[in-house]
Amino acid sequence: MERNNLQTTGRERLSYAGFFLGQNIIYVLPFQFLTYFYTEFVGLTLADTAVLLLLAKVWDAINDPIMGAIVDKCNLKKGKFLPWLKVATYILPLSLFLMFINVQGPYILKLIYAYLTYLIFDMVYTISDSPLFSLSTVMTSNPYERDKLMAYGRLAAAVAAITSAVFMSLKVNIGWTWTVGVYCLLSYIVMFPLQFTAKERVKYQNSEDITFLKIFKYLFSNKYLLIYFIGFLGIEITNTLQIIAVYFANSNLGDETMVMVIMAVVIVPVILVAPFLPMLIKKFGKKKITIECSVIAILLSIVQYFTGYENLTLFLAVAAVRITFMQIPLMLYGMFTADCIEYGAYKTGERIASMAFSLQTFMTKLGGALANTLCLVLLAVFGYVEKAPQQNATAIEGIWVIFCIIPIFGYLVMIVIMAFYKLDEKEVARMIEENQKKQEML
Protein backbone atom coordinates (compact mmCIF):
# COMPACT_ATOMS: atom_id res chain seq x y z
CA MET A 1 0.00 0.00 0.00
CA GLU A 2 1.42 3.34 -1.03
CA ARG A 3 0.40 6.87 -1.80
CA ASN A 4 -2.43 5.91 -4.22
CA ASN A 5 -4.25 3.94 -1.49
CA LEU A 6 -4.74 6.68 1.08
CA GLN A 7 -7.58 5.91 3.49
CA THR A 8 -7.88 9.32 5.17
CA THR A 9 -9.47 12.40 3.65
CA GLY A 10 -7.71 15.70 3.06
CA ARG A 11 -9.89 17.27 5.77
CA GLU A 12 -8.80 14.62 8.27
CA ARG A 13 -5.12 15.10 7.52
CA LEU A 14 -5.49 18.88 7.76
CA SER A 15 -7.30 18.69 11.11
CA TYR A 16 -4.70 16.20 12.41
CA ALA A 17 -1.97 18.68 11.51
CA GLY A 18 -4.06 21.44 13.07
CA PHE A 19 -4.23 19.66 16.41
CA PHE A 20 -0.47 19.12 16.27
CA LEU A 21 -0.04 22.83 15.56
CA GLY A 22 -2.08 23.87 18.56
CA GLN A 23 -0.54 21.28 20.85
CA ASN A 24 2.99 22.21 19.81
CA ILE A 25 2.37 25.92 20.29
CA ILE A 26 1.35 25.00 23.82
CA TYR A 27 4.48 22.87 24.23
CA VAL A 28 6.96 25.31 22.66
CA LEU A 29 6.05 28.34 24.76
CA PRO A 30 7.00 26.87 28.16
CA PHE A 31 9.93 25.00 26.63
CA GLN A 32 11.43 28.23 25.25
CA PHE A 33 10.22 30.88 27.66
CA LEU A 34 9.07 29.46 30.99
CA THR A 35 12.53 29.35 32.55
CA TYR A 36 13.13 32.95 31.43
CA PHE A 37 9.67 33.94 32.74
CA TYR A 38 10.36 32.38 36.13
CA THR A 39 13.86 33.85 36.58
CA GLU A 40 13.56 37.25 34.88
CA PHE A 41 9.92 38.24 35.52
CA VAL A 42 8.48 36.26 38.45
CA GLY A 43 11.81 36.48 40.27
CA LEU A 44 12.43 32.81 41.11
CA THR A 45 16.06 31.89 41.63
CA LEU A 46 17.96 29.67 39.20
CA ALA A 47 18.21 27.03 41.94
CA ASP A 48 14.48 26.98 42.77
CA THR A 49 13.55 26.86 39.10
CA ALA A 50 15.93 23.95 38.49
CA VAL A 51 14.52 21.99 41.45
CA LEU A 52 10.96 22.66 40.28
CA LEU A 53 11.65 21.25 36.83
CA LEU A 54 13.37 18.16 38.23
CA LEU A 55 10.68 17.37 40.81
CA ALA A 56 8.04 17.68 38.11
CA LYS A 57 9.73 14.81 36.30
CA VAL A 58 9.32 12.62 39.36
CA TRP A 59 5.58 13.16 38.98
CA ASP A 60 5.90 12.43 35.27
CA ALA A 61 7.59 9.13 36.02
CA ILE A 62 4.34 8.13 37.74
CA ASN A 63 1.78 10.04 35.67
CA ASP A 64 2.78 9.33 32.06
CA PRO A 65 2.96 5.50 32.16
CA ILE A 66 -0.26 5.29 34.17
CA MET A 67 -2.05 7.51 31.65
CA GLY A 68 -0.76 5.40 28.77
CA ALA A 69 -1.89 2.20 30.46
CA ILE A 70 -5.35 3.65 31.14
CA VAL A 71 -5.81 4.61 27.47
CA ASP A 72 -4.67 1.15 26.31
CA LYS A 73 -7.00 -0.53 28.80
CA CYS A 74 -10.08 1.63 28.10
CA ASN A 75 -12.39 1.23 25.12
CA LEU A 76 -14.72 4.23 25.14
CA LYS A 77 -17.94 4.32 23.11
CA LYS A 78 -16.81 7.08 20.75
CA GLY A 79 -13.34 5.73 20.10
CA LYS A 80 -10.16 4.70 21.80
CA PHE A 81 -8.20 7.95 21.35
CA LEU A 82 -10.53 10.71 20.10
CA PRO A 83 -12.45 11.18 23.39
CA TRP A 84 -9.21 12.01 25.20
CA LEU A 85 -8.28 14.54 22.53
CA LYS A 86 -11.71 16.18 22.77
CA VAL A 87 -11.15 16.80 26.49
CA ALA A 88 -7.61 18.07 25.87
CA THR A 89 -8.89 20.60 23.30
CA TYR A 90 -10.58 22.58 26.07
CA ILE A 91 -8.35 22.13 29.11
CA LEU A 92 -4.86 22.20 27.60
CA PRO A 93 -4.91 25.89 26.52
CA LEU A 94 -6.35 26.84 29.91
CA SER A 95 -3.58 25.03 31.80
CA LEU A 96 -0.94 26.90 29.78
CA PHE A 97 -2.58 30.27 30.46
CA LEU A 98 -2.64 29.67 34.22
CA MET A 99 1.05 28.82 34.24
CA PHE A 100 2.07 32.24 32.90
CA ILE A 101 0.30 34.30 35.56
CA ASN A 102 2.62 36.14 37.96
CA VAL A 103 0.70 36.08 41.24
CA GLN A 104 1.32 38.97 43.58
CA GLY A 105 2.51 38.16 47.07
CA PRO A 106 5.49 36.82 49.01
CA TYR A 107 8.15 34.71 47.33
CA ILE A 108 6.85 31.45 48.82
CA LEU A 109 3.40 32.06 47.32
CA LYS A 110 4.95 32.60 43.88
CA LEU A 111 6.91 29.36 44.25
CA ILE A 112 3.89 27.33 45.36
CA TYR A 113 1.80 28.70 42.48
CA ALA A 114 4.58 27.83 40.02
CA TYR A 115 4.67 24.24 41.34
CA LEU A 116 0.90 23.76 41.20
CA THR A 117 0.36 25.20 37.73
CA TYR A 118 3.40 23.47 36.23
CA LEU A 119 2.37 20.06 37.59
CA ILE A 120 -1.22 20.52 36.40
CA PHE A 121 -0.04 21.56 32.94
CA ASP A 122 2.29 18.56 32.79
CA MET A 123 -0.53 16.15 33.60
CA VAL A 124 -2.97 17.74 31.16
CA TYR A 125 -0.39 17.68 28.37
CA THR A 126 -0.02 13.92 28.87
CA ILE A 127 -3.75 13.51 28.17
CA SER A 128 -3.21 15.06 24.73
CA ASP A 129 0.08 13.59 23.62
CA SER A 130 0.02 9.79 23.58
CA PRO A 131 -3.58 9.61 22.22
CA LEU A 132 -2.66 12.06 19.44
CA PHE A 133 0.27 10.00 18.22
CA SER A 134 -1.65 6.75 18.75
CA LEU A 135 -4.53 8.09 16.64
CA SER A 136 -2.37 7.96 13.50
CA THR A 137 -2.04 4.18 13.87
CA VAL A 138 -5.83 3.68 13.74
CA MET A 139 -6.72 6.33 11.16
CA THR A 140 -5.04 4.19 8.49
CA SER A 141 -3.37 0.81 8.02
CA ASN A 142 -1.17 2.16 5.22
CA PRO A 143 2.47 2.56 6.46
CA TYR A 144 3.22 5.31 3.93
CA GLU A 145 0.08 7.20 4.96
CA ARG A 146 0.94 6.81 8.63
CA ASP A 147 4.36 8.35 7.99
CA LYS A 148 2.61 11.07 6.00
CA LEU A 149 0.36 11.90 8.95
CA MET A 150 3.37 12.01 11.25
CA ALA A 151 5.17 14.26 8.76
CA TYR A 152 2.16 16.61 8.78
CA GLY A 153 2.48 16.64 12.54
CA ARG A 154 6.16 17.51 12.48
CA LEU A 155 5.53 20.22 9.87
CA ALA A 156 2.91 21.67 12.19
CA ALA A 157 5.43 21.54 15.04
CA ALA A 158 7.87 23.56 12.95
CA VAL A 159 5.15 26.12 12.20
CA ALA A 160 4.44 26.27 15.94
CA ALA A 161 8.08 27.10 16.58
CA ILE A 162 7.86 29.92 14.02
CA THR A 163 4.78 31.37 15.72
CA SER A 164 6.81 31.57 18.93
CA ALA A 165 9.27 33.85 17.15
CA VAL A 166 7.00 36.86 17.64
CA PHE A 167 6.34 36.06 21.30
CA MET A 168 8.85 38.49 22.79
CA SER A 169 7.71 41.34 20.54
CA LEU A 170 4.09 40.81 21.62
CA LYS A 171 5.20 40.56 25.23
CA VAL A 172 6.75 44.00 25.07
CA ASN A 173 3.39 45.50 24.07
CA ILE A 174 0.79 43.53 26.05
CA GLY A 175 2.76 41.71 28.76
CA TRP A 176 3.49 38.06 29.50
CA THR A 177 0.05 36.78 30.50
CA TRP A 178 -2.01 38.32 27.70
CA THR A 179 0.57 37.30 25.11
CA VAL A 180 0.17 33.71 26.29
CA GLY A 181 -3.61 34.24 26.15
CA VAL A 182 -3.38 35.10 22.45
CA TYR A 183 -1.44 31.89 21.79
CA CYS A 184 -3.92 29.84 23.86
CA LEU A 185 -6.82 31.14 21.77
CA LEU A 186 -5.00 30.35 18.54
CA SER A 187 -4.19 26.85 19.79
CA TYR A 188 -7.81 26.17 20.73
CA ILE A 189 -9.06 27.28 17.30
CA VAL A 190 -6.73 24.98 15.33
CA MET A 191 -7.20 22.00 17.69
CA PHE A 192 -11.00 22.20 17.67
CA PRO A 193 -11.88 20.53 14.28
CA LEU A 194 -10.12 17.16 14.87
CA GLN A 195 -12.81 15.81 17.19
CA PHE A 196 -15.38 16.13 14.36
CA THR A 197 -13.34 15.07 11.32
CA ALA A 198 -11.02 12.21 12.33
CA LYS A 199 -12.11 8.56 12.15
CA GLU A 200 -10.65 5.51 13.85
CA ARG A 201 -10.83 3.05 10.95
CA VAL A 202 -8.44 0.34 12.09
CA LYS A 203 -9.75 -1.72 14.99
CA TYR A 204 -7.28 -3.54 17.20
CA GLN A 205 -8.32 -5.81 20.00
CA ASN A 206 -6.14 -6.90 22.90
CA SER A 207 -6.79 -9.90 25.11
CA GLU A 208 -9.80 -9.40 27.33
CA ASP A 209 -7.76 -10.31 30.40
CA ILE A 210 -4.87 -7.95 29.72
CA THR A 211 -3.93 -6.27 32.98
CA PHE A 212 -2.03 -3.09 33.84
CA LEU A 213 0.87 -5.29 34.96
CA LYS A 214 0.94 -7.06 31.59
CA ILE A 215 0.81 -3.72 29.76
CA PHE A 216 3.93 -2.57 31.62
CA LYS A 217 5.58 -5.93 31.04
CA TYR A 218 4.97 -5.85 27.28
CA LEU A 219 6.22 -2.28 27.05
CA PHE A 220 9.54 -3.05 28.69
CA SER A 221 9.99 -6.21 26.64
CA ASN A 222 10.01 -4.08 23.46
CA LYS A 223 13.76 -3.84 23.05
CA TYR A 224 13.80 -1.57 19.99
CA LEU A 225 11.50 0.96 21.65
CA LEU A 226 13.81 1.16 24.66
CA ILE A 227 16.96 1.26 22.51
CA TYR A 228 15.65 4.10 20.36
CA PHE A 229 14.57 6.24 23.28
CA ILE A 230 17.99 6.07 24.90
CA GLY A 231 19.33 7.88 21.82
CA PHE A 232 16.33 10.20 21.68
CA LEU A 233 16.76 11.15 25.33
CA GLY A 234 20.42 11.94 24.68
CA ILE A 235 19.43 14.49 22.03
CA GLU A 236 16.60 15.95 24.12
CA ILE A 237 18.71 16.47 27.25
CA THR A 238 21.31 18.43 25.28
CA ASN A 239 18.74 20.28 23.15
CA THR A 240 19.74 23.57 24.76
CA LEU A 241 19.59 25.84 21.73
CA GLN A 242 15.93 26.86 21.90
CA ILE A 243 16.04 27.34 25.68
CA ILE A 244 19.15 29.48 25.63
CA ALA A 245 18.09 31.48 22.55
CA VAL A 246 16.29 34.20 24.52
CA TYR A 247 19.24 34.51 26.95
CA PHE A 248 21.58 34.69 23.94
CA ALA A 249 19.47 37.38 22.26
CA ASN A 250 19.31 39.46 25.44
CA SER A 251 22.89 39.09 26.72
CA ASN A 252 25.02 38.42 23.64
CA LEU A 253 23.11 40.42 21.02
CA GLY A 254 21.77 43.05 23.42
CA ASP A 255 18.10 42.79 22.43
CA GLU A 256 15.75 40.04 23.68
CA THR A 257 13.35 40.64 20.75
CA MET A 258 16.11 39.36 18.42
CA VAL A 259 14.94 35.89 19.42
CA MET A 260 12.16 36.50 16.86
CA VAL A 261 14.71 36.78 14.05
CA ILE A 262 16.76 33.82 15.29
CA MET A 263 13.81 31.45 15.61
CA ALA A 264 12.21 32.50 12.32
CA VAL A 265 15.38 32.03 10.29
CA VAL A 266 16.33 28.67 11.79
CA ILE A 267 12.85 27.10 11.58
CA VAL A 268 11.90 28.06 8.00
CA PRO A 269 14.21 25.42 6.45
CA VAL A 270 12.59 22.75 8.64
CA ILE A 271 9.18 23.66 7.20
CA LEU A 272 10.61 23.21 3.71
CA VAL A 273 12.02 19.77 4.56
CA ALA A 274 9.05 18.31 6.49
CA PRO A 275 6.73 17.63 3.50
CA PHE A 276 9.45 15.52 1.87
CA LEU A 277 10.04 13.27 4.90
CA PRO A 278 7.86 10.34 3.69
CA MET A 279 9.69 10.35 0.34
CA LEU A 280 13.10 10.56 2.04
CA ILE A 281 12.15 7.72 4.39
CA LYS A 282 11.06 5.58 1.45
CA LYS A 283 14.38 6.19 -0.32
CA PHE A 284 16.86 6.07 2.57
CA GLY A 285 15.09 4.73 5.65
CA LYS A 286 14.67 6.39 9.05
CA LYS A 287 17.81 4.87 10.56
CA LYS A 288 20.16 6.08 7.84
CA ILE A 289 18.60 9.55 7.84
CA THR A 290 19.00 9.77 11.62
CA ILE A 291 22.67 8.77 11.59
CA GLU A 292 23.74 10.96 8.68
CA CYS A 293 21.84 14.04 9.91
CA SER A 294 23.36 13.57 13.37
CA VAL A 295 26.88 13.52 11.92
CA ILE A 296 26.22 16.68 9.89
CA ALA A 297 24.62 18.39 12.92
CA ILE A 298 27.78 17.76 14.96
CA LEU A 299 30.05 19.18 12.25
CA LEU A 300 27.87 22.26 11.76
CA SER A 301 27.73 22.90 15.51
CA ILE A 302 31.52 23.11 15.54
CA VAL A 303 31.47 25.39 12.49
CA GLN A 304 28.87 27.59 14.19
CA TYR A 305 31.00 28.00 17.31
CA PHE A 306 34.14 29.06 15.46
CA THR A 307 32.41 31.39 12.97
CA GLY A 308 30.85 33.27 15.91
CA TYR A 309 28.04 35.80 15.79
CA GLU A 310 29.82 39.10 15.06
CA ASN A 311 28.63 38.80 11.46
CA LEU A 312 24.89 38.41 12.04
CA THR A 313 24.10 37.35 8.46
CA LEU A 314 26.71 34.57 8.54
CA PHE A 315 25.53 33.49 11.99
CA LEU A 316 21.92 33.17 10.84
CA ALA A 317 22.87 31.34 7.63
CA VAL A 318 24.95 28.73 9.46
CA ALA A 319 22.26 28.40 12.16
CA ALA A 320 19.55 27.80 9.57
CA VAL A 321 21.41 24.89 7.95
CA ARG A 322 22.67 23.54 11.26
CA ILE A 323 19.26 23.41 12.93
CA THR A 324 17.65 21.82 9.89
CA PHE A 325 19.93 18.81 10.32
CA MET A 326 19.50 18.92 14.10
CA GLN A 327 15.72 18.83 13.79
CA ILE A 328 15.32 16.08 11.18
CA PRO A 329 16.12 13.22 13.63
CA LEU A 330 13.64 14.71 16.10
CA MET A 331 10.99 14.96 13.39
CA LEU A 332 11.13 11.16 13.01
CA TYR A 333 10.60 10.16 16.62
CA GLY A 334 6.86 9.49 16.36
CA MET A 335 7.48 7.33 13.29
CA PHE A 336 10.09 5.29 15.15
CA THR A 337 7.62 4.78 18.01
CA ALA A 338 4.89 3.62 15.62
CA ASP A 339 7.31 1.09 14.07
CA CYS A 340 8.24 -0.20 17.52
CA ILE A 341 4.55 -0.62 18.37
CA GLU A 342 4.18 -2.92 15.36
CA TYR A 343 7.26 -4.86 16.48
CA GLY A 344 5.82 -5.25 19.99
CA ALA A 345 2.43 -6.39 18.66
CA TYR A 346 4.15 -8.88 16.34
CA LYS A 347 6.22 -10.36 19.17
CA THR A 348 3.61 -10.46 21.95
CA GLY A 349 0.23 -10.40 20.19
CA GLU A 350 -0.78 -7.40 22.31
CA ARG A 351 -0.91 -3.85 20.95
CA ILE A 352 0.37 -1.40 23.57
CA ALA A 353 0.10 1.76 21.45
CA SER A 354 -0.82 4.45 23.94
CA MET A 355 1.59 3.10 26.52
CA ALA A 356 4.42 3.26 23.98
CA PHE A 357 3.52 6.80 23.01
CA SER A 358 3.24 7.74 26.70
CA LEU A 359 6.86 6.61 27.03
CA GLN A 360 7.61 8.95 24.13
CA THR A 361 5.74 11.74 25.92
CA PHE A 362 7.63 11.06 29.13
CA MET A 363 11.00 11.04 27.37
CA THR A 364 10.15 14.30 25.57
CA LYS A 365 9.16 16.05 28.78
CA LEU A 366 11.99 14.50 30.79
CA GLY A 367 14.49 15.55 28.14
CA GLY A 368 13.02 19.06 28.02
CA ALA A 369 13.13 19.44 31.80
CA LEU A 370 16.68 18.12 32.02
CA ALA A 371 17.72 20.41 29.17
CA ASN A 372 16.23 23.35 31.09
CA THR A 373 18.01 22.21 34.24
CA LEU A 374 21.28 21.73 32.35
CA CYS A 375 20.99 25.27 30.98
CA LEU A 376 20.33 26.69 34.44
CA VAL A 377 23.22 24.78 36.01
CA LEU A 378 25.61 25.85 33.25
CA LEU A 379 24.44 29.46 33.47
CA ALA A 380 25.23 29.39 37.18
CA VAL A 381 28.63 27.80 36.53
CA PHE A 382 29.47 30.50 33.99
CA GLY A 383 28.47 33.24 36.44
CA TYR A 384 25.15 34.39 34.95
CA VAL A 385 23.33 36.87 37.22
CA GLU A 386 19.51 37.06 37.09
CA LYS A 387 18.07 40.46 36.06
CA ALA A 388 21.55 41.98 35.66
CA PRO A 389 21.59 44.82 33.09
CA GLN A 390 24.76 43.35 31.58
CA GLN A 391 26.51 39.99 31.99
CA ASN A 392 30.27 39.56 32.37
CA ALA A 393 32.47 38.13 29.60
CA THR A 394 32.56 34.64 31.13
CA ALA A 395 28.77 34.42 31.25
CA ILE A 396 28.47 35.66 27.66
CA GLU A 397 30.97 33.05 26.45
CA GLY A 398 29.15 30.41 28.49
CA ILE A 399 25.86 31.23 26.78
CA TRP A 400 27.58 30.81 23.41
CA VAL A 401 28.99 27.43 24.47
CA ILE A 402 25.52 26.28 25.57
CA PHE A 403 24.10 27.51 22.25
CA CYS A 404 26.66 25.73 20.05
CA ILE A 405 28.61 22.96 21.75
CA ILE A 406 26.34 21.21 24.28
CA PRO A 407 23.97 19.68 21.64
CA ILE A 408 26.91 17.80 20.10
CA PHE A 409 26.95 15.26 22.93
CA GLY A 410 23.36 14.18 22.39
CA TYR A 411 23.88 13.49 18.69
CA LEU A 412 26.95 11.41 19.53
CA VAL A 413 24.75 9.28 21.79
CA MET A 414 22.20 8.82 19.00
CA ILE A 415 24.86 7.75 16.49
CA VAL A 416 26.12 5.08 18.89
CA ILE A 417 22.66 3.83 19.83
CA MET A 418 21.56 3.44 16.20
CA ALA A 419 24.12 0.62 15.84
CA PHE A 420 21.82 -1.49 18.04
CA TYR A 421 18.55 -0.57 16.29
CA LYS A 422 17.75 -3.20 13.63
CA LEU A 423 14.18 -2.46 12.42
CA ASP A 424 13.78 -1.24 8.85
CA GLU A 425 10.78 -0.14 6.79
CA LYS A 426 10.35 -3.43 4.89
CA GLU A 427 10.34 -5.47 8.07
CA VAL A 428 7.81 -3.14 9.71
CA ALA A 429 5.51 -3.34 6.66
CA ARG A 430 5.63 -7.15 6.91
CA MET A 431 4.81 -7.00 10.62
CA ILE A 432 1.83 -4.70 9.97
CA GLU A 433 0.37 -7.24 7.54
CA GLU A 434 0.94 -10.10 9.97
CA ASN A 435 -0.60 -8.15 12.84
CA GLN A 436 -3.71 -7.39 10.77
CA LYS A 437 -4.09 -11.07 9.86
CA LYS A 438 -3.93 -11.99 13.55
CA GLN A 439 -6.65 -9.43 14.32
CA GLU A 440 -8.89 -10.87 11.61
CA MET A 441 -8.62 -14.29 13.27
CA LEU A 442 -9.81 -12.98 16.68
Q: Mind sketching the topology for me?
A:
Blueprint: H1 10-42, H2 46-73, H3 82-99, H4 107-139, H5 143-163, H6 167-174, H7 176-191, H8 194-197, H9 212-220, H10 223-237, H11 241-252, H12 259-273, H13 277-284, H14 286-307, H15 312-331, H16 333-348, H17 353-381, H18 393-404, H19 407-417, H20 425-441
Helix pairs in contact: 1-3, 1-4, 1-5, 1-7, 1-11, 2-4, 2-17, 3-4, 3-7, 4-17, 5-12, 6-7, 10-16, 10-17, 10-19, 11-18, 12-15, 13-14, 14-15, 14-19, 16-17, 16-20, 17-18
CATH architecture: Up-down Bundle
User: Stretches where pLDDT falls below 50 for ≥5 residues?
Assistant: none
Mean pLDDT value: 86
Any idea what the radius of gyration is?
21 Å
Question: What does the oligomeric state look like here?
Answer: single chain
Helix percent reads over 70%
- The CATH superfamily bears the name MFS general substrate transporter like domains
Strand % is under 5%
CATH fold label: Growth Hormone, Chain: A
Question: How many helical elements?
Answer: 20
Briefly note the structural class of the backbone.
mainly alpha
Q: Ends: how far apart?
A: 23 Å
Largest sheet: none
Top CATH class: Mainly Alpha
